Predict the 3D structure of the following.
Amino acid sequence: MVPCVGRAAGGTARGSPSENWTRTEVEAATFADARLHRRFGVLLGQLAVGIGKSIPQACRDWAGAKAAYGFLANSRVSEGDILGGHMAATAERFMASRGVVLLLQDTTEFTYRRASASAIGVTKSVNSGRDAKGRWRHHTLCGLLMHTSLAVTEDRVPLGVTALKVWTRSKCGTAALKRVVNPTRVPIEGKESVRWLDNLRRSVELLGEPGRLVHVGDRESDIYELFCLARDLGTHFVVRTCVDRLAGDGTHTIATEMADARVRGLHRVALRGPEGEAMNVVLEIQARRVHVLPPIGKQRRYPALDLIVLHVTERDRPRGREPIEWKLLTDLPVRSRRDALEKVRWYAMRWKIETFRKILKSGCRAEESRLQSAERIANLLALFCIIAWRVLWLTLAHRADPGATPQTALSEREITVLDRILLIRRSERTEETSLAAYVRKLARLGGYLGRSRDPPPGISVLWRGLSRLADIELGMEVATRPTCG
């Protein structure tokens, strides 16, 4: 069952289903002023129908653009206020769902061209080639960093953003510091990586039912303190590891114990090669319970943990590319090949947050903003997160439940417009009233061909389709509006 975008968790409609999908994401938001709440709802709707457009283009006139700029610059508005209603709706969708829900976490950078980095901050220093004398040149990138948690069901349906942290740096570069300070001896509270723990804690507090939640992260989240926090909160994790920690009695490491671990089974997957060619790959899966010790400098503060180590390796070394090799850690039991494949599949779903990030950068064009302060950009990014979630939801929800009604995602007006401008092919008439059929219609507005062997529509054609649908709706409204004089 696909959680409905336009309905409350209990199944009761708030007005007409998805008549204005933003209502569900705005209703529970709390602002210091009711006028800010109304302006937020208007601005979210304008940016959603004008995906990829600048604020003046989305707002259509100077009065609307001025109001938008005023909202983003208001000192009483923060990204937490903007996402408050969406997170409340996410919690409702979580309660309406069943089974395990994955918490995908990731950090991304947003870079901007500015004459001075003082108002926005910096992200990192990069090489820009050599000068005339052969010396390396470096320049500092101006921008913000954003760490996001996204809740996704086992059917790959995104429920929404559960935690968000946006921050800036006054300076960058830690290489010199690492030469004099061992980072493993620094408390986690003094590092930027504490964001992984903070987001996990906030997500569990928001959603409740920690036993249903599984944190999924890449190698950057291979943090021992995170594993201990998950245990304390009663939740779970599947993390790709990059640290060969001490194991057993402390005289050897995890790699030593995994060297003779038996192969639990084989798994065949279909991949695309470097040139786009189809290929089948055989993966070997090893699993073993290991007594993992905390870092040496933190053994008095944190206990040892019994964790499952999963190694997924490609059986035959391929040509022209790196072999597949995943080393995963989880606190969940793995008693069979089926359990092991389940954990591997969960980690593979981490890519959904990469898709979410692509919508932010390529669809919403978040890095093309001309706002001049970090606070205003952070507020705009929070708005874009809600829009990016909706695009991702549209892309994946109809695949999980093709027979769902189109009203779960589209307004009656949007359905009527799609019916008028696009005809469904004869081969699709058996499902012409389904959500999947209307998503294909929407995708065709964005350039989707819908041939028999084409994959389901993706995010790019959908965000282009949504933008074009909004323009068509505006044209139809103008054409039917009575004139004066």
About this structure: Residues 7-19, 424-431 have pLDDT under 50 and may be disordered. The two ends are 53 Å apart (CA to CA).
